[in-house]
Amino acid sequence: MTKEREQIIAKIEKQKKNPNLKLKLKERTEYFTNLLFYTLFDSDTEVEKNIAILEQTFEELVDLACWETERPCCKIWQSYLEKLPEILQKLNKDADSFIKSDPAANSIEEVYLAYPGFYAIAIYRLSHELLKFGLPLIPRLMTEYSHRLTGTDINPGAEIGESFFIDHATGIVIGETAIIKNNVKIYQGVTLGGLYVDRKLRNVKRHPTVEDNVTIYANATILGGTTIIGANSTIGGNAWITSSVPENSIISNTSEIKIKKVI
């Protein structure tokens, strides 16, 4: 090895300051996420066999991600496993909402297999429940994996009710402290975000609340932790909202469109 190469290697090693930054954790989390999805939905996958593989994989993730040795990370798996039937029940309700909401859906199988919005919701629900056990990095890696695949960015900390429908999925952002209640429909490009970004807002509700039976159309932006979209409201496309909307409202962003016939 040349002296120049030794110097380069020494400089790189000096800059690798984070001993807990292991990219294997990201790769194994993606494998774990796929295993979960297959276990819950694939008719050819043996549940008992996959549960054993999931447990083994989860133990590996814990070894990689649980840096505080006194925390009982190893006890999380059994508690999480007990939640899976309930998560699956919620996801089946979500899938039903796709069938009821989208005339382009030809079958329930198509929803499970081909809809990126359903996949994003599934990984959100699986990661959200895991986040409750105090192991934040793995859930975040799960939703970022889904984000990469679907174009939908749902923070695992968000609270989302039953029968959630996402159409087209691409470009949707749902922030960490957002609350979405039941029977909500969201279209592509919608943002449920904060008014601004500041580290001081950590642990503060900074994303909006969307109440029951609300429909939010494409590219609407709704910002702020005190912003509430009242039940049974419809938010039109491209709307910009930073204050609360009463129940049973219709919000539209109108602009003048001129059509001129050219001869």
Write up what this structure looks like.
- The protein is α/β, with parallel strands linked by helices.
- It has two domains: 23-153, Orthogonal Bundle (serine acetyltransferase, domain 1), CATH 1.10.3130; 171-252, UDP N-Acetylglucosamine Acyltransferase, domain 1 (3 Solenoid), CATH 2.160.10.10.
- Helix content is 43%, strand content 11%.
- The chain is built from seven helices and 14 strands.
- The protein has helices spanning 3-15, 23-41, 47-65, 76-101, 108-114, 116-131, 137-150; strands spanning 153-154, 159-160, 165-166, 173-174, 179-180, 185-186, 191-193, 209-210, 215-216, 221-223, 228-229, 234-235, 240-241, 250-251.
- The strands form three sheets. The chain has a five-stranded parallel β-sheet with strand order 1-4-7-10-13. Strands 3-6-9-12-14 form a five-stranded parallel β-sheet. A four-stranded parallel β-sheet has the order 2-5-8-11, with no helix packed on it.
- Helix 2 runs antiparallel to helix 3 (47-65), helix 2 (23-41) packs across helix 7 (137-150) and helix 6 (116-131) packs antiparallel against helix 7 (137-150).
- The chain is globular and about 75 Å long.
- The N and C termini lie far apart (75 Å).
- The model has no long low-confidence stretch (mean pLDDT 93).
Task: Label this structure with key terms.
single chain; 263 residues; alpha/beta; serine acetyltransferase, domain 1; UDP N-Acetylglucosamine Acyltransferase, domain 1; 2 domains; five-stranded parallel β-sheet; 7 helices; 11% strand
